[in-house]
């Protein structure tokens, strides 16, 4: 019956347009939500196949939600050191407390005060452990993903293993003349000490380096370790380094009063035949003296964790009070064959589905994954101007459908009156 068909069609319009208004409402509510992807109403006609030239059977309209998950949002700057955004394809990988894995474009990560883990909306951000240079130390697979623990390395210290010395020993010094310099050393506990080097000219083009015991840098009157080793140095006639004995030049420090481990230090005195380390040239002075250019060592004083930053490319770096910065994790990026097929979950999270396919994990910028930018956040993709336009259209369509219901009701009343 055509009146029933008209009523059914109008009711389907009321239902569909109300759902469209719900989607508009959600979009507007999340216009400022980081990483939010807008949802749009997709309408389709439901015309009955029984319609013919002799009669028309109305079918109405149906609606479904289309999630624009793969749509790129505008990237904006953030003052948070742990904020990040993906420019291009991919999602951050997170896990909840039960171990379920989800994916998100919301990169507003924070450090959980209680545990030290990086979290996004209460879920743990996942990544791979790295060495200090940012190289992943495990296979880049789902099985090796781990929670990013910013408290994993709370402090650092390292013993000195190499001293690089660049200096000119005066060729015009007399045999028996001696000069002193001081070098810093760190033990395995990160305690700083100093060692005095005495450079003595033993013959033409020949020198000998001897070393004092180590003394605390904080109190030079306190001996902290026993140094053993003597270096004999020979120069070529052109002032370049000819040889050292032993080769390579080394000294040992034992008996640290701090309780640190014994250590051996290699002295990098330059290239044999070169002038990039020790040289012997005339000082052209009435009082010849050693000209010290540089003494550098690779030890590290004790330092405690002061901050964590997510860098471009997904490196999670830890900064310490001694000024050192090390990479501790790499943020993982997941890509999908059909990202728009992901299942939406609360909190801006998505879950795998048969439509999306399984996740493929990459480092940022590799294998089709987008670039990861630190200090950025991805804005919501909602266009409020467009949403207002859609809302007005849905409102008018809803009012018109309601008017159809009212008209059909009056027509039913007329029909019933005629029957009476």
From TrEMBL:
SUPFAM superfamilies: Flagellar hook protein flgE. It holds the Pfam family LlgE_F_G_D1. It is found in: Bacterial flagellum basal body. Residues 171-290 form the Flagellar hook protein FlgE D2 domain. Residues 85-145 form the Flagellar hook protein FlgE/F/G-like D1 domain. Gene3D superfamilies: Flagellar hook protein FlgE. Keywords: Bacterial flagellum, Cell projection, Cilium, Flagellum. The keyword Transcription does not apply. Residues 375-417 form the Flagellar basal-body/hook protein C-terminal domain. Residues 7-37 form the Flagellar basal body rod protein N-terminal domain. Belongs to the flagella basal body rod proteins family. A flexible structure which links the flagellar filament to the drive apparatus in the basal body. This is Flagellar hook protein FlgE. It comes from Rhodoplanes azumiensis. The lineage of its organism: Bacteria, Pseudomonadati, Pseudomonadota, Alphaproteobacteria, Hyphomicrobiales.
